[in-house]
Write a structure and sequence with these properties.
heterotrimer; A alpha/beta (382); B mainly alpha (352); C alpha+beta (536); A: 382 residues; 35% helix; 31% strand; C: 536 residues; alpha+beta; 3 domains; 5-stranded antiparallel beta sheet; 12 strands
Chain lengths: 382, 352, 536
């Protein structure tokens, strides 16, 4: 041991003990935030609400003692401030623990706030802060976000977890256009596509449910799609994973319906130029199984299947057209047509980029072609 | 032989700085392919130059080639390169750690820990470092591949369109910047006289750099595919963000440690090798028998030097503007200069 | 200026006073003193000498007698009680010398050339030495021989009738196996030697014996197979062993600490085993074994890191299963070293890495626990070590009960008293369990220390601390050498050929090479031993 080594040892030990734990936080000394809500408040302020888990009220198996219902397993805090981050800090005034946002799964933004602010501004903090994960779901609510965070779900203990799970399930129901934080922010950065976000509402029993989606124009709220229009958008985007298409078999009889379960769907978006004007060809390919029939056509005949396929194509096409009309009304290119023009005709895109949403998109001719295929008919042939 | 295949690969370019940052956007993967080609050319040149006098110590070789005064300047430049590069790496690693995890920890403490670790590793010399790398390297590569593999389902091909939107210029610029990160080519001539089979280096180094190049191409492509060109360009730690995004059946998620460990392991190894190189050249230059007493002073200088970067954005800008030029000077210009001196200066005979 | 000051302040600087070149003039130091007393022709002189030297050694038995008919030749035997098989001694030494020499015809010969006749015809002993220095005579008496002094002969006759008791050959407790040989070394070097010999029946197996320990005069055996061993390593081992100058050797660990490469290294740099089959296998792979009289464990040099995770049983069970268990052991190594540190680091610095439901339940169980996670983990780890130590020190029947009851009661009571949370108990238990899969107890002790160091670093710096500590640890391990062989080989430096018997265990017909850097002839068996139907 020469003096130099001693010096080194000293430095090492000094760093070890001096560095003591600046960022140390015990799991029971932090509040686990699972949901964040943003409302607009008076005087250009933001009302930020957080849903914090109360771990001791969560029933863990094998944890004896106490027992019975201890009350809600979560609580909500909210604070008003000029910016998102300031509000996040202000919430700490009301909590005994430091809040931790690593487990946050949903960000709910009220319609009002999304009209007032650009999404880019609202979401900046959540993307910038390292604690927030990119897998957070972003939702819009026509109510106040605070209320949504305070709902009760019959199955789940935490409403935020319920909503997040419902969105995950919804990708298979194909009724809303779900987007996580990464994709929302990614889309906000591109000029040729607008975001659409799922809409969460609460019913009379104070239960949250998800229906339809909200369309945005350049990051600002533009209007609502209902569930059919939402699926129309998803058809074009090729993001329909599963779902049911109900086909009227005989027009005169309102009850004779065939339901087809969607197995696989894909789409191609192909821009074209004819007569110097830009247009879009959308082709949707869908494969489905017949799941139930109210009337009984003989499915052994190839014509019948073909007929079902054509009818289904019509239904889907109608859905897509409905969504196109709605989107054009909102001036909101949720389909990403602009991006596709960008990919195919980069020079042309540069010239029309500025007036895309307000002039070109609203007048854009879109040719929709749907190809349906019925694979299975279930166990019954008729 | 076993020594250099490791050193070549251990200097994996971390996930944060790639050609994406240079503005080649969706064509970054093309830029990386181009940069691999540039790297290979550079490597061949450096090897040719350094194999000419493989038995001679680095500093005496330089002095013999350039003469006393110019040689001293070149040697000092080399020392500067290693010290300064380590400082930049150190700052990069520390700012990453402070930004992501150790928000409240003073960065000096993290600096100190990293420098002490690297000094300790450098202290044992080249052979021990090479052996350590032989264990760390497979770990890094497998973590890297696991991460990339898990990201594959999230890749969207649309993010690569349109190909060559702004022509070849950004691609070439990106390739230039990316290939400049290939810093270990500077390291090769310094340690070549300490390698037991210098002739085999040519093969192993080439293989090593091809492996590294391919890993980089795949990583760049996947990160661009996941994040999209816009987001990839605006985020600082793109690889880390991309790895964080992994979610496999709601079970394999929260994979931050993978990104974090790749980053820490590769950077610390890099810094320790550079500290070793810097103190080795300094020892040769100052005619000190052992490099060991110089290691801690070198580490300390690096620690001080790393503070010239004031903030993250400055550091980020530095990595895509000044840094490539700085590296290119050492990777291309100086070897070329020495090469020309050997060829035309008639000093070749002196070397034999 | 600072450094001299620190030098003065450094409290342990006095350690330097014990210099390497220090000379101890104790009389007990050194091997055989320079001044030697030769055996005298006068029996009385010899008897006096013996009596003086053996003063107060009440177990020393001196028996004077006479050889032949009256007047006879005066003589005496000296031996140490308990070390000598008395019955044998009486039968083959005392009876011929005292009784048979009375016979007429023998007496006749005795008169002519007494000493030659006694040596060649009377003493029916297979092993007879003649020593003319008193010191050496006494030394061999002390190590269990019997010395016979005869009047007029200036030499002592030494016969070996060692007859002390030693333990039977039993299965070693620290290295239990399911399949394979059960025999273990005993404390007697002679027996151990025989055990190895019985496995390797070749004159190429060399055994060199040295006497080490100026007082204890312990026999140390160096075993190797000529032609297989690497001569450089052999020379190095000889040199290191001959350099030892100590008063006593009681166990192989004395030798271990005196010949290892890095004196302060916590890792075992020399492999120890109590099983002759392990020694034989290692000798066959080109290593050396050092055995010490009085210790049942053998030292095997050189040793590499992976060797400590290999059990002898790996070679006696099917290779697939052996490879699998090796992986289990390596996994256990990672768990045993890193798990508590990772747990503390993740729960106190990187909460985002825990899946949400798990995080909530950990938070719920930690509600009301007064200590930080680090203190909890360190405390439970300490408790576990105490229990383990108690379990080994106690008589075996009680020991097991103590460890089980202790674990149950302490674990359960600590949780219900709110001192710790159940996850910490689980982590501690898993860590404690994992470490017992490692066959070498020396490695286990080291790993426990490293685990605690990592735990501290994990608590102070989180993952970054663990990562940096791992790097330091790795580079430290890589800097180690055992008798010139890199400690981390075959992993670093990577020797792909040697991975056949470190990461996996390939079947014997594939194990065609001895470990690189260790043996001199690396080829072990010819190619084409793969069993299969006979080809025509």
């Amino acid at each position: 041991m020469n003096p130099k080594q001693i010096l080194i040892c000293f430095i090492i030990f000094a760093t070890l003990f001096v560095s003591g734990c600046w960022d140390r936080r015990e799991l029971n000394e932090i509040g686990l935030v699972v949901g964040v809500g943003i409302d607009s408040a008076e005087k250009n302020n933001i009302l930020l609400s957080t849903e914090v888990v109360l771990p001791s009220n969560i029933k863990t198996t094998g944890h004896t003692g106490g027992g019975g219902s201890k009350g809600k397993p979560y609580t909500t805090f909210s604070a008003t401030a000029e910016t998102t981050f300031y509000a996040v800090r202000k919430i700490l005034d009301f909590t005994s623990r430091k809040l931790f946002y690593g487990y946050n799964s949903i960000i709910i933004i009220s319609e009002e706030a999304s009209k007032k602010y650009n999404m880019d501004e609202l979401l900046d903090f959540f993307v910038r802060d390292p604690e927030f994960r990119e897998r957070n779901w972003v939702l819009i609510t026509p109510h106040s976000a605070f209320d949504i965070l305070n709902t009760d779900h019959p199955l789940e203990m935490l409403p935020s977890k319920a909503i997040a799970d419902e969105i995950k399930a919804n990708t298979y129901k194909s009724k809303t256009i779900s987007n996580d934080l990464l994709h929302v922010y990614q889309t906000l950065q591109t000029r040729g596509q607008d975001i659409a976000l799922p809409v969460v509402k609460k019913d009379k029993n104070n239960r949250p449910y998800i229906t339809g989606s909200a369309a945005f124009k350049s990051g600002k709220f533009a209007g609502y799609f209902n569930e059919i229009e939402s699926r129309g958008v998803l058809w074009v985007l090729g993001r329909v994973k599963s779902g049911v298409v109900v086909i009227p078999w005989q027009d005169d009889e309102s009850k004779s319906k065939i339901s087809v379960e969607i197995i696989k769907a894909s789409s191609t978006i192909e821009p074209f130029i004819s007569n110097g004007k830009i247009g879009i060809n959308v082709t949707v390919n869908q494969t489905g199984n017949i799941a139930s029939m109210f009337s009984k056509p003989d499915l052994q005949k190839p014509d019948i299947i073909k007929n079902v396929e054509t009818l289904e194509e019509k239904v889907i096409k109608r859905e897509i057209e409905a969504s196109l009309i709605a989107a054009k009304r909102f001036h909101s290119d949720v389909f990403g047509f602009g991006n596709h023009i960008h990919y195919k005709f980069p020079e042309l895109w540069k010239s029309i980029e500025g007036k895309w949403r307000d002039e070109i998109f609203t007048e854009l001719p879109v040719n929709v072609k749907v190809n349906c295929r019925i694979n299975q008919v279930g166990l019954l042939l008729r | 032989m076993w020594l250099l295949i490791t050193t070549s690969n251990s200097l994996l370019i971390p996930l944060s700085q790639t050609a994406i940052a240079a503005g080649s956007r969706q064509d970054s993967w093309l830029a990386e392919i181009l940069s691999l080609a540039i790297q290979l050319v550079m490597l061949q040149m450096i090897l040719k130059f350094s194999l000419l006098s493989k038995d001679m110590e680095f500093s005496s070789r330089i002095k013999k080639i350039c003469g006393r005064i110019v040689g001293s300047i070149v040697i000092v430049l080399y020392i500067w390169f290693f010290v300064f590069s380590s400082a930049a790496f150190l700052k990069e690693l520390t700012s990453f750690a402070v930004a992501m995890i150790y928000v409240q920890t003073p960065s000096v403490v993290i600096d100190l820990m990293i420098i002490l670790t690297s000094c300790y590793m450098a202290f044992h010399g080249l052979e021990v470092q090479a052996r350590t790398n032989e264990i760390i390297l497979p770990t890094i590569i497998s973590l890297y591949l696991i991460g990339l593999f898990l990201l594959l389902p999230n890749v969207k091909l649309d993010n690569f369109k349109p190909v060559l939107e702004n022509g070849l210029t950004p691609v070439i610029k990106g390739a230039f910047i990316s290939s400049s990160s290939f810093v270990f080519t500077v390291f090769v001539p310094v340690v070549l006289s300490y390698v037991n089979k210098p002739e085999e280096c040519q093969k192993t180094l080439t293989i090593g750099s091809i492996i590294q190049g391919f890993l980089l191409i795949i990583a760049t492509a996947i990160i661009t595919g996941v994040l999209g060109p816009n987001l990839a360009q605006v985020t600082i730690y793109r690889g880390y963000i991309a790895l964080r995004y992994i979610s496999y059946g709601n079970f394999v998620e929260h994979l931050d440690p993978i990104g974090f460990s790749i980053f820490v392991l590769s950077k610390v190894v890099q810094i320790s090798l550079f500290i070793y190189a810097a103190s080795l050249i300094s020892a040769q230059f100052l005619a000190i028998k052992s490099y060991k007493p110089l290691i801690f002073p070198t580490g300390f200088i690096i620690l001080l030097l790393s503070n010239i970067f004031k903030n993250v954005s400055q550091l980020n800008r530095f990595f895509i503007t000044l840094w490539p030029l700085h590296n290119f000077f050492f990777e291309m210009v100086i070897p070329l200069f020495l090469w020309i001196l050997i060829l035309f200066g008639g000093r070749e005979r002196n070397l034999e | 200026m600072v450094i001299p000051l620190l030098k003065k302040l450094w409290p342990f600087s006095f350690i330097k006073k014990f210099n390497k070149n220090e000379i101890l003039n104790d009389g007990l130091q050194g091997k055989i003193p320079e001044v030697q007393t030769s055996v005298s022709k006068s029996l009385q002189k010899n008897l006096n000498y013996v009596n003086t030297v053996m003063k107060n050694c009440q177990d020393a038995i001196v028996r004077p007698f006479k050889i032949g008919k009256k007047p006879g030749i005066p003589a005496f035997v000296v031996f140490l009680d308990g070390l000598v098989d008395r019955e044998l001694l009486e039968k083959s030494v005392m009876i011929p010398l005292m009784v048979k020499s009375q016979e007429e015809n023998i007496n006749h010969f005795l008169k002519n050339n007494a000493f030659d006749y006694i040596e060649n015809h009377l003493l029916a002993s297979t092993d007879l030495k003649k020593i003319s220095e008193m010191e050496r005579v006494i030394q061999s008496v002390c190590s269990g021989s019997t010395a016979i002094f005869i009047d007029g002969l200036n030499k002592a006759l030494i016969v070996d009738y060692e007859g002390y008791n030693f333990r039977n050959v039993e299965e070693p407790e620290v290295e239990p196996v399911i399949r394979g040989p059960r025999e273990g070394f005993t404390e007697a070097l002679r027996v151990n030697n025989a055990l190895i010999r019985r496995k390797i029946k070749s004159p190429k197996l060399k055994a060199e014996f040295l006497e080490i320990g100026s007082i204890t005069k312990t026999q140390v055996g160096l075993f190797y197979i000529d032609g297989v061993v690497n001569n450089k390593i052999l020379e190095e081992a000889r040199k290191r062993i001959s350099r030892i100058n100590i008063d006593g050797i009681l166990d192989t660990n004395y030798i271990d600490e005196l010949i290892r490469d890095a004196p302060l290294c916590p890792f075992p740099l020399i492999h120890r085993t109590e099983k002759p089959d392990v020694v034989a296998a290692e000798l066959l792979s080109g290593k050396l074994a050092i055995l010490v009289d009085g210790s049942p464990s053998a030292l095997i040099v050189p040793a590499v890191f992976t060797e400590f995770f290999i059990s002898s049983e790996d070679y006696y069970l099917i290779f697939i299963f052996s490879s699998f268990t090796r992986w289990i052991r390596f996994l256990s190594l990672l768990i045993a070293v890193f798990l508590p540190a990772l747990y503390v680091a993740v729960t106190t610095y990187h909460q985002e890495m825990i899946p949400t439901p798990l995080a909530i339940s950990i938070a719920a169980t930690r509600e009301g626990v007064p200590f930080p996670t680090f203190v909890e983990a360190a405390l439970m780890g300490l408790v576990f070590e105490i229990l383990r130590e108690a379990g080994t020190r106690m008589p075996r029947t009680i020991g097991q009960a103590v460890s089980i009851v202790g674990t149950l009661i302490i674990g359960d009571a600590a949780v219900s008293a709110g001192l710790t949370s159940p996850p910490t108990i689980i982590i501690t238990a898993l860590t404690g369990l994992a470490i017992f899969t490692i066959p070498a107890p020396e490695m286990v002790i080291t790993l426990v220390i490293i685990r605690f160091l990592l735990l501290i670093l994990g608590a102070v710096m989180g993952l970054m601390g663990i990562m940096l500590a791992t790097l330091i640890l790795l580079s430290y391990l890589a800097s180690l050498r055992s008798f010139g062989v890199p400690y981390l080989s075959p992993l670093g430096p990577l020797k792909p050929r040697d991975l056949q018997d470190s990461i996996v265990r390939v079947p014997w017909w594939m194990m065609r090479w001895r470990p690189h850097l260790i043996g001199s002839k690396s080829k072990r068996q010819p190619f084409g031993q793969k069993p299969g139907p006979h080809k025509r």
